[in-house]
Amino acid sequence: MTVSFDLTGRTALITGAGQGVGAGIAATLAAAGAKVYVNDLVPARAAAAADELIAVGGAAEPLAFDVTDHEAVVGALQRVGGVDILVNNAGNAGGDGWPGMVPFVQTAPSEWAPFLQVNLFGVMHCVHSALPYMIERRWGRIITIMSDAGRVGEPNMAAYAAAKAGAAALTRSVAHEVGRYGITANNIALGTMRTPLSEARWATITPEESKVVLQRYLVRRPGNPDDVAGLALFLASGAGEWVTAQTYPVNGGYSVAL
Ligand SMILES: NC(=O)c1ccc[n+]([C@@H]2O[C@H](COP(=O)([O-])OP(=O)(O)OC[C@H]3O[C@@H](n4cnc5c(N)ncnc54)[C@H](O)[C@@H]3O)[C@@H](O)[C@H]2O)c1
Questions:
Q1: Which of 26, 60, 106, 228 sits 20 to 30 Å CA-CA off 9?
Q2: 34 HSE (CA, 13 A, CB side)
Q3: CATH for 29
C-alpha cells in the first residue's frame, strides 16, 4: 500500500472555518485536493475564507449555518449531499471572544448553556447529520477539535472543559459504532493558541503573565492554525485509515511541562 495524503475526489465540511484554526485546516485540506465546504455562523466570514481558498486554486464553497441549529445542520448536509470528511471545529469560550475565566463555584447555571450548546451539542448535531452519508459510502472521517482543558482539566474553565470532554467522548464512542463501515473518528486536543478567539487575551497580557503561561509549554510559544492542520490532514487522509477512537494533543508539550 502506498501511503497517501491526497484528498482528490473527497469532500470536507469544516465548521467554524471562517477564521482561526478552522480556516487553517480548510486551507490544508483544500491544498491536498479536497472540495471544502467552509462553514461559519457569520456568512461573510465563510464567504471570505472560501474566496481565499479559491484564489489560490482550491475548490471551496461557503456553507453558513449555526451548528447549534439541528434543522439548519440537517438542511446543509442535504444540500451538499453529505461529505466524506467532517471537522468539528466550531467552538466558543462561552460567548464572543474570551469572556474571562471564573471559578466554577462563582458561575450560575444560566451561564453554562452557551458553552454546551456550541462545543457539545453542535458536535452532536453535525456528527448525527453527517454519519448516514458516510455509512452509505462506506468511508468517512470525523475529526473533533477539543481542548486540553477538556482532556486534562483546567481551573476556571469547568463548563468549557466539560463541553469539550463530552464532545470528545461522543466522537470516540461513535468511532466504536462505525469503524466497520470504514469510518474513523478522532479528537485533536489543543493547547493555548493564538487565534481571533484568544487574541484579546494575548493583546492585553503583560510580558510577565505571558512568561508564566508559556513556561508551561515545552515549545515556548502559543500554537497557530498551521500547527494543527498537519495532524488533521493525516487523520482525514488514507494514511490515517487504521487510526481511530483516539485523542491527540497538539499543544507544544503542555501536559508534560506541568
Ligand atoms: N484559541 C485557543 O486558544 C483554543 C484552545 C483550545 C481549543 N480551541 C478550540 O479550537 C476551535 C477553534 O478555535 P479558534 O481559536 O480558531 O476560534 P475562533 O473564534 O477564532 O474561530 C471560531 C469560528 O467558529 C465560528 N462559530 C462560532 N460558533 C459557531 C456556530 N454556532 N456555528 C458555526 N460557526 C460558529 C465563529 O464565527 C468563528 O469564525 C474551537 O473549537 C476552540 O474551542 C481553541
A1: 228
A2: 29
A3: 3.40.50.720
Residue 181 designated active-site? no
Convert the pLDDT of each residue in 81-116 to its tens digit. 999 999 999 999 766 666 668 899 999 999 999 999
Instruction: Decide: 115 and 160 in contact? Cβ < 8 Å.
Output: yes
Residue 236: exposure state from Cβ atoms within 10 A (0-12, 13-18, ≥19):
buried
CB atoms within 10 A of CB 128: 15
Distance CA(29)–CA(11), nearest Å, equals 9
On whether residue 2 sits in a domain, the answer given is: no
- 12 in Cβ contact with 60 (< 8 Å): no
Q: How far is CA 221 from the centre of its chain?
A: 20
Cell of 142: 470525523
Domain count, the chain: 1
Ligand 1 mutation target, pool 14, 40, 248, most atoms within 8 A of CB: 40
Q: What is the DSSP-derived secondary structure letter of residue 117?
A: I
Amino acid identity of residue 37, one-letter, is Y
Domain range enclosing 34: 11-249
The grid coordinates of residue 146 equal 477539543
- C-beta of 66 in contact with ligand 1 (< 6 A): yes
Predicted confidence (pLDDT) per residue in 147-203, tens digit: 999 999 989 999 999 999 999 999 999 999 999 999 999 999 999 999 998 888 888
